[in-house]
Amino acid sequence: MPTARDMDWPKGIDFAELNGERLARLQMLMKADGLGAMFLSNGANVRYATGAAKLLGNAASELIAYKALVPADGTPIVYSVPGNEIVPLREELGADRVRPFIPWFISPARERDLGRWIDQLKADMKTLGVSGEKLGMDSQVELSAEPAWGAARVTLVDGTATLRRAKLVKTPLEIKLIRHNAKQLDELFVDMVKEVHVGMSERELIARTAAMSFERGFEYPFFAVAAGKRSYPFDPGLPNPNRIRAGDFLIVDAGGYGMGGYFVDISRSFVVGKRPSARQRRVYKECLDVLNSMISAVKPGATTADVAERIPEYLVAEELKAGCPGHDVRAHAIGLTANDGMLVNKAYSPQRPERFEPNMYFAIECEVGEGEDGVRLEHDILVTKDGVEIIDAYPIETLQYL
What we know:
Helix 2 packs across helix 8 (about 160-170) and helix 9 (about 170-195) crosses helix 10. Helix content is about 35%, strand content about 20%. It has two domains: about 5-165, Creatinase/prolidase N-terminal domain (Creatine Amidinohydrolase, Chain A, domain 1, 3-Layer(aba) Sandwich); about 170-400, Creatinase/methionine aminopeptidase superfamily (Creatine Amidinohydrolase, Alpha-Beta Complex), CATH 3.90.230.10. It has a six-stranded mixed beta sheet, sandwiched between helices. The chain has helices at about 5-10, 15-30, 45-50, 85-95, 110-125, 140-145, 145-150, 160-170, 170-195, 200-215, 280-295, 305-310, 315-320; strands spanning about 35-40, 65-70, 75-80, 100, 135, 155-160, 220-225, 250-255, 265-270, 330-335, 345, 360-370, 375-385, 390, 400. It starts with a helix and ends with a strand. By secondary structure, the chain is an alpha/beta fold. The protein is elongated and about 70 Å long.
């Protein structure tokens, strides 16, 4: 099995060019929003702007993630918290572009270290030529210290809206990398179904599939599996010893952070050990029809409310009766996180619609059930100039039995 790096370059993913694309888009929007610079604490945001990432980089907490000071023009400065590897980062980004971070928010001498940190960042803003300009933040931790920043004559603003707009619309190389990861996930499903058998536990299936994911270059896979009575309401929970019985529906919600940290996320449902019953076929078709109806509503200029209208009211009522939240998320923008900030659900979207634009990337899903027969189906889709493209290719139109 080739390594992630072996699979990377032959497919033409130049990460330096990718980093440049993302940084250029973010800086364009920073200028439009009047930001001289942004200080980033969230691991996924730092990776978006600089390419620097830790183990579990996109999901890393603020305590261990890299930080970055991003000017509206020029090259960012990256900060490494104690315990991170500064030497290789300096080799990659340049010694003059890497600094130690002062984690003031966990310091026993909080006020002193906050003052030291403010002095450091002010000096770096001067180096980047943005002294006195607005500084956007993506961290409520940093924004909570606004009085201290104000006293130091640094104007903080919430920069999350700027970041959100940047990340929602994908660049050409982001899309290329997403396609690569989706293909890896499709191939993973082909291998995974060969492993499924009656008597297998959900935990065992997750363990085998996770190993295949790492072999295919995934940084951090994600799997939620539910069989039989746990398939409706869908109850993934933690990996557990529940065993697959003959005739069970098996739901596999799979994906995670693939190569380059880009999230892929699809769901399929199968019947194991017996040919599907008439009810199972009917429930599957109902779920697929609703999913296809939602997808058909996605196009440039349409809104999240248009998609939410395609979710049948009876389905919401049935889910509430079955113990589901009923108004849960039906589509979520994905990228370097599992949720890039734009959602579709029945409760929220009609009141606060948002417009789709070309090159937005979403996971869109539906769940239908009756008795112990639960179906969950999910595609990854890319908004195009004319409508929508389904990125994943693993078969979905016909109910499979394994």
